[in-house]
Records
---
Amino acid sequence: MAPAESQTKYIFVTGGVTSSLGKGIISASLAKLLQARGYSATIQKLDPYINIDPGTLNPYEHGECYVTEDGAETDLDLGHYERFLNVPTSQANNVTTGRIYQSVIEKERRGDYLGETVQVIPHITDEIKQSIKLLGKNKQFDFVITEIGGTVGDIESLPYVEAIRQLRWELGKNCLVIHLTLVPYLAAAKELKTKPTQHSVKTMQEYGVQPDILVCRTEKHLNDGIRNKIALFCNVSSRDVIESIDTDSIYRVPMLMLEEQLDLRVLNKTNMKSDQQPELSAWKNFLDHLKNPDCDVSIALVGKYVELMDAYKSIIESLIHAGTTNKCNVNIKMVHSEHIENGNESIILKNVSGVIVAPGFGERGIEGKIAAITYARTHKIPFLGICLGMQCATIEFAQNVLNLKGAHSYEMMPNTPYPIISMMEEQKKVNIKGGTMRLGAYKCKLDLESKAFSIYKQETISERHRHRYEFNNYFLKDFEKHGMVASGINPESGLVEIMELKNHPWFVGVQFHPEYKSTVARPHPLFVEFVKAAMDFKK
Ligand code: GLN
């Protein structure tokens, strides 16, 4: 057990200068280091947009929608938190402005404010503070790290910065602000520039918040001169100017932060003991394997958002975890499903040793996904279908093996004569989009003779979901007779969770999202075995 003071410490991570500096990774890295020193930590993301959650946002807007055990549709940064810490997050770990306002407006309608004028300060800021403190309740965690989305200076993040200002007064030493900024390198002048950081800190100061620690994202090392200059202009000590240099893997950032002593500075400022050295041997082992693979393998990821790496973040990270476990570098070939047409799949998928068909919604790109599956099935290439990818695999099988002409999903073709994928019964009553899918963790029972069981090595598993449609059990007998079997079933509803092909070295479709549960400490067995199968195929 860690030596800890009795009070939960609240750490805020804000961002300045520009978005995409990696606040999520810095927050996760700091939490990782604190965890490695024996402290418990959780991370929360506050997003300043009006959507209640990112569930209704399309991936072009916001990248992947991550799903927690309790069925919250959340920001993709929560995926990083779980992958780094190996601790599940929940609804409480992601709050948006929309949710804050919704709650305040509900209270106003109930009459909770007893006739007061309801205002941004104090009502909205109180609601924000309450969401932050909720995670610190009952002293569940030594550290609650709260990442504020967006960039300081944006109109929409103002109430959050104001809430931090108020909390600093309330919490004193139990509260700390880390501000992440950019120190750009001007190639023409051959110089790193500190002015954007100075301005960004000034903006914070105008709002009444003095950052305690500055983490400076940079592509060149910060020398002492630069550190001293930033310290001088920004009211911090030069030890609190932390360099965050560009690196080839997000998983290296905790080690970089350790070298820069970010964790020590945090412990020192919050009066927490730092005599326990961080236990990072497993993490270092992972980095070692990541850096020195014995082989490499190419895997195609077929989807319709491939121009956007963030859209499939968790799948990509799961493949990195699985590759590292197998000491194999996984080369991910992003394949746009709309680019698979007129029989060109044999060219596009020529040198790959595995095919993943990604989750998704709507009919765009479906034909390309189905063609890719035919190719993987008939060429015995290892195949993993996730959610829509599994649904497409059953449609492909119905069309091409069972010869059911026009077989399809009710989602894309409501008048199909063979609705292989139909709408789940409880979804038929649903008429609003937000938060109404089958979401979060559900149990699945595996057939003991199946590939799935040989992968999981346990009879009952639990995985996370996000869907409205399901395999239509009316057709199951016919499928099984022809070699595609349901090897995983939800014990309560009989819903098909896993389909696999018998006469194929590795062909598995899953209705759930295994990618949400893969972490550095616990790479997901489905991905690990899939990569292994791809390595075998290559041989
Ligand atoms: N669109 C499909 C459904 O709702 C698949 C969803 C997904 O891939 N996440 O069932």
Note: The pocket of glutamine is lined by residues 359-361, 387-388, 411, 466-469 (CB under 6 Å).
---
Amino acid sequence: MFTEVLMPSDDAIREAAALIRAGQLVAFPTETVYGLGANALDPEAVARIFAAKNRPGDNPLIAHISDVSQLRPLIDCEPGPVARRMMDAFWPGPLTMIFPRAKLVPANLSAGLDTVSVRLPSHPVARALISAAGVPIAAPSANRSGRPSPTSAAHVFEDMKGRIPLILDGGDCAVGLESTVVDMTCDVPRILRPGGITAEMIAEVAGGSEVDPAVMRPLQEGEQPRSPGMKYRHYAPRGELTIVEGDPANVAEAISEMYDCALADGHHPLILALDGHLAAYGGRRAESLGGDEAEMAHRIFALLRDADALGADVLFSEAVEARGLGLAVMNRLGRAAAFHILKV
Ligand code: AMP
Ligand code: MG
């Protein structure tokens, strides 16, 4: 299949909307990462997403809408007062909410669960496409399963060329991490995947929030996660990643020592370090994570892809505190490392 890449002109959006209505797949930019879109109400179109990504069938997809009025038909209840306050505060934006699923929603979208996840994105191209298609759009990240999420059209092309007919190129994504996923079927909103809308921001609007314990640790043997996506080793670079946590001077010393050992053993090591710490690694090969959590969120997936392109087979990364946006960054980095975190 030939994969066309188009700037998101009115014509291109019309073409994309026609493909969506015809049951085909289109990759498009959102403020979080690029999405791989299909008509969320068409089970065959939804099945095409799972096939193109090679995504396990038990990992549900998020339905994207362009107006709050499109929510009610997808869910099996009236949204409660807390959900309404969260919509007012964070939609459009990087927040996904989980509700009981209406019959209208195909079972394969939700991987057979009786719930459905919905988000109203803020990116103008995403909203224009959903409006033009006239249907909610199912859209997971437009990477092949197991690869870092794509934050540019070039990343999407790398993973999806020959598998989908069209990519809308809207430039780099602003947030760079996938949406915050919150289960609204619990008494207190429960964060299943941290993202740009932080636990602290949600608690302020909702009067409380909980973070699912599986966010910052590997699953236990036989554990059934509330968010099926947590079962899988997402965001993986090809090299083996170790996160080193502790006092910055100790971290730099430990990473330098491991780097030198890896080099002596014939490996191609790479260090991921915060701007202010780069000098501590002397002439060793290091890439900048940025200066703070927001820059890390923006760069992390591109960095993991770059590490692959540089042929790094062993990676060492510094850590940040798992609070605020730092929780989302450490969740992604932790999963990329299969939670191999060394405390020094
Ligand atoms: P992605 O589509 O790649 O952004 O991933 C979507 C994430 O949301 C995955 O981790 C899913 O497990 C999670 N998710 C989507 N729908 C549901 C749902 N109904 N219940 C629990 N988790 C969900
Ligand atoms: Mg994904």
Note: The longest helix spans residues 248-264.
